[in-house]
Amino acid sequence: MFKKILIANRGEIACRIIKSAKKLGIKTVAVYSDADANALHVKMADEAVHIGAAPSSQSYIVIERIIDAIRKTGADAVHPGYGFLSENPSFAEALEKEGITFIGPPVGAIQAMGDKITSKKLAAETGVSTVPGHMGLIADADEAVRISSSIGYPVMIKASAGGGGKGMRIAWNEDEAREGFQASKNEARSSFGDDRIFIEKFVLQPRHIEIQVLGDKHGTVLYLGERECSIQRRNQKVIEEAPSPFLDEETRRAMGEQAVALSKAVGYHSAGTVEFIVDGDRNFYFLEMNTRLQVEHPVTELITGIDLVEQMIRVADDEKLSFGQADVKLTGWAIESRLYAEDPYRNFLPSIGRLSRYRPPAEGAKADGVVVRNDTGVLEGGEISIYYDPMVAKLCSWAKDRLTAIDAMSAALDDFEVEGIGHNLPFLSAVMQHPRFRSGKITTAFITEEFPEGFIGVEPDLVAARKLAVVATWVNHATQSRAIRISGTIGNHRRIIGRDWVAVLASHTFDVTFDLVASGSIVRFSDGTVFEINGNWQPGQSHAHFIVDGEEMGVKVSKSGNGIRLRWRGIDEVAHVREPRVAKLAALMPVKLPVDASRMLLCPMPGIITSVAVQEGDQVEAGQALATVEAMKMENTLRAEKRATVKRVSAVAGQSLAVDDIIMEFE
């Protein structure tokens, strides 16, 4: 077995690999850039080597610097994780020349399957059904438009060396094909150092289902079931689950056998993933093969009990797989939610900043058999920068069936505390409660169709509003009680807390009465509805568990002016609990209007201006591209909302901007 493994990666996947290596008694080496000097993976590893500046093009994807770190530490094997150099055949070849074992597939397989153009040709030759498209390289935007028109819109423009949604665009017409081609090339060059592009037909209403394969160097290749990855936005997976709620055993077997046949055709060993598009009739089409560990591998581990990272290490050390296809059993259901540093209220644009609070839910098996797992690479106080992927953590739940796993995920999301950055926890919670998701009737268009105007939060219905009003009333009483204990008795008088209150939350107003009883507390509504509540919240705490009429609620609690901010199940509302007389006066207060920024183009996220497409005095039309902002390896084109004349341009290419910095103004 290897004595020391260097992990050529960062973040949560580096931490994940370190855990399996330690379980096997193998020492680990971390590499880090300037931005990651205090990162969790650096702290977890036995050794750490600095490899360069923050941009990945100057550190994590510079082969010579990784090789130098190997020489310095004497590592005898390298695990690449995913992204960065994981599917770079030149890196695998460089390791081979150094006599260092690459914990991954052979170079030939990476070249054949890591290149999406070659892989599609080989898949077709192997008898795997493929999506119609252009398999050759594309010289320029004009050729991209001609090819797209011949295939028929919509088309998918993809980076040949891509992954993780980088270098990928959907084009519905010639203008979008031209623009998407250039944007995909730019992202591919920045993320992978390879700007080759191909185009294929975009299948409408598809499901994205992938097969996990695992092979050894002795000719055995197995499939370990499938993962449903259809909940995506901007072609980036957000929620995954295993198994798929859509496949039957016959289709699962057929997809698995094709994935194994394709793997054997290229002499594959190690872990890999064969991705398919599946239509409503369970017809499936090969998309690509990822010759590496996938981000969503934990859900497969949870339903099979197989540690994929451990198996990759053992296979690389020339061990035979200790189990066969008949031994692979899919047990229960697993869900993975990707926690991203992005603002769902701003169309999921990246967010950066310091994690002023980072408290994941407790991991491990629960009394009811549910399992919670959180793969992460950050610590409280850590910095989320603009240089890398915005994923902060992968929260997973396992249970005996799908709905129980979803409910377990909902509870875990309620307990996950993140402050200091914009993040998608509210959105993840909203999806878990969505009837269509819970029914399993999902496609890759789920987010677009169910949130067409973007995510604006969850408006509490009457049932949810009552529960939160009960919590707010309880919190108000606890706060009032603490104030009395602090102030004590003044003279012969002691302040009395009233029983009658008005609770206002969102569009709901409730007249309530609060009473202490032997079993806890009672909140009675004016219509006669009664709720019993118990809780463990103390003033100053940011999170608490409440039992409201027998239902456990994990609620984030904080002050907001004179109100109580409550966050639960995607709902984020400020509740006001007032004495009846004060409530009447508060209802008369004028509403503060937002600042009018309609004549300004504001930077929607922290990032770098890569281009400005207009000048002062130009007249622009609705939909016209005005500027491009890059953050976390993704380019975002900002467009005019209406016809206007540019009055002033305040930003230039190469300039770093914060959220809401002014890019330009209009007359």
From TrEMBL:
Gene3D superfamilies: 2.40.50.100, 3.30.700.30, ATP-grasp fold, B domain. Its EC number is 6.4.1.3. InterPro entries: ATP-grasp, BC-like_N, Biotin_BS, Biotin_carboxylase_complex, Biotin_carboxylation_dom, Biotin_COase_C, Biotin_lipoyl, CPAse_ATP-bd. Keywords: ATP-binding, Biotin, Ligase, Lipid degradation, Lipid metabolism, Magnesium, Manganese, Metal-binding, Nucleotide-binding. It comes from the Bacteria. Pfam families: Biotin_carb_C, Biotin_carb_N, Biotin_lipoyl, CPSase_L_D2, PCC_BT. Residues 588-667 form the Lipoyl-binding domain. It catalyses: propanoyl-CoA + hydrogencarbonate + ATP = (S)-methylmalonyl-CoA + ADP + phosphate + H(+). Its cofactor is biotin. One of its GO terms (biological process) is lipid catabolic process. Pathway: Metabolic intermediate metabolism; propanoyl-CoA degradation; succinyl-CoA from propanoyl-CoA: step 1/3. This is propionyl-CoA carboxylase. It comes from Rhizobium rhizogenes NBRC 13257.
